[in-house]
Amino acid sequence: MGGQGVPVLNGNAAMDKILSVAPMLDWTDRHCRYFLRLVCPSCVLYTEMVTTSALLLGRDPERFLEFSGAEHPLILQLGGDDPHAMHAAGRMARAYGYDGLNLNVGCPSPRVQKGSFGACLMTTPDLVAELVAAMGESGLPVSVKHRLGLDREEDYAALRAFVETVATAGCRHFIVHARNAWLKGLSPAENRDVPPLRWDWVHQLKRDLPHLTIEINGGFNDLAAVTAQFSAVDGVMLGRAAYHHPLLLAEIERALGRRETLPEPEVILSGLIAYAERWGEWLPAPRLSRHLHGLRFGQRGAGAWRRFLGTAEPGESAAKFLRRGMSLLD
Fold first, then answer.
1. For the chain, which domains are there?
2. Strand partners, 5
3. Per UniProt, where does FMN bind (predicted)?
């Protein structure tokens, strides 16, 4: 896959023009990721955030860790604040064959605030460095996804100091959500839109720390906005735009010279049918179909396709359901 411009993650190899899809809780499960990989062979995919307690104390860690080999390159995003737990979780990730680890230092939800991790870790860069060092003992590359800062405090110098401190632990890849996380007064959904975007801060971070890989996240919805970023930073991570308009990923690939034509929805659906057939009755239609509303985004017949996705019959397998849907794409 390297010939297609896929960023190589194992071995900390250099990455050029990274295109990735953000970890999104309840969205980027393994079925969603398989779909996105059919759309975009070169993008880096991330799991939903998995807490170390779910892996180490839960009865079914396989539920969180298993994935299809077609999903590579795939990064496991971890949430937590205990270096020993991060070390153990990192070893599990290596055993399962992940390409890298990512530490969540950006989630503002009340649940992670109660556990004092996620965006709360922005206030403790030394602890983040400890967590990164513990994760790095797995032998996998480690990245950190973080915010610009917390609440309404705007301090570029503090952001740079945070990154420099964490980098001393061996982290060379930082994914910066270009907004603050407001822990008081905003919901997690509002935190994705209300705090002001500061793309220029991320650009400045790359200029100040050119030896680090700096990837930008936040507010990207169209091809022009994404491609313009590659002259300033090393990569772009898309979130909701990739989920709701997945073919945008293929458009970006084409703009980067990684493909000549866009994938046809019929070809993508055929790949999904083959995938669903391997699962058989173990994959009910809604578990896969819920991710496919954007398959025909902006195309004629998009409304009919979305209406079809709500017609799964009780107990119908995803494979059978998608075979019915193929007629809508003829």
1. 2-255 (3.20.20.70), 265-329 (no CATH)
2. none
3. 23-25, 77, 145, 177, 217-219, 239-240
Which residues 6+ apart lie within 8 Å of 260 measured at CB? 254
Out of 32, 40, 43, 107, pick the active-site residue: 107
What does each C-alpha distance from 11 to 75, 138, 140, 172 come to in angstroms?
Answer: 14, 12, 8, 12
Query: Where is 276: in which H helix or E strand?
Result: helix 265-279
CB 24, CB 239: distance < 8 Å: yes
Of the candidates 310, 283, 309, the residue with the CA atom closest to the CA atom of residue 296: 309
Taking the CA atoms of residue 116, residue 200, residue 5 and residue 9 in that order, the dihedral angle to the nearest 10 degrees is -30
Written as tens digits, the pLDDT of the chain (330 aa) is 333 344 444 433 345 799 999 999 999 999 999 999 999 999 999 999 999 999 999 888 999 999 999 999 999 999 999 999 999 999 999 999 999 999 999 988 877 766 678 889 999 999 999 999 999 999 999 999 999 999 898 999 999 999 999 999 999 999 999 999 888 878 888 888 888 999 999 999 999 999 999 999 999 999 999 999 999 999 999 999 999 999 999 999 999 999 999 999 999 999 999 999 999 999 999 999 999 999 999 998 899 999 999 999 889 999 999 999 998 876
From the CB of residue 201, how many other CB atoms can be counted at a distance below 10 Å?
A: 18
Instruction: Pick out the residues of the known binding site for FMN.
Output: 23-25, 77, 145, 177, 217-219, 239-240
Label residue 56 left, alpha or beta by phi (over 0 means left) and psi (-120 to 50 means alpha): alpha
Q: In 34-52, which positions are buried (b, 16+ CB within 10 angstroms) versus exposed (e)?
A: bbbbbbbbbbbbbbbbbbb
> What is the pTM (predicted TM-score) of this model?
0.93
For helices 30-39 and 247-255, angle between their N-to-C axes, nearest 10 degrees: 40
Instruction: Note if 107 is an active site residue.
Output: yes
**What is the full DSSP assignment across 77-98?**
EEE-S-HHHHHHHHHHHHHHT-
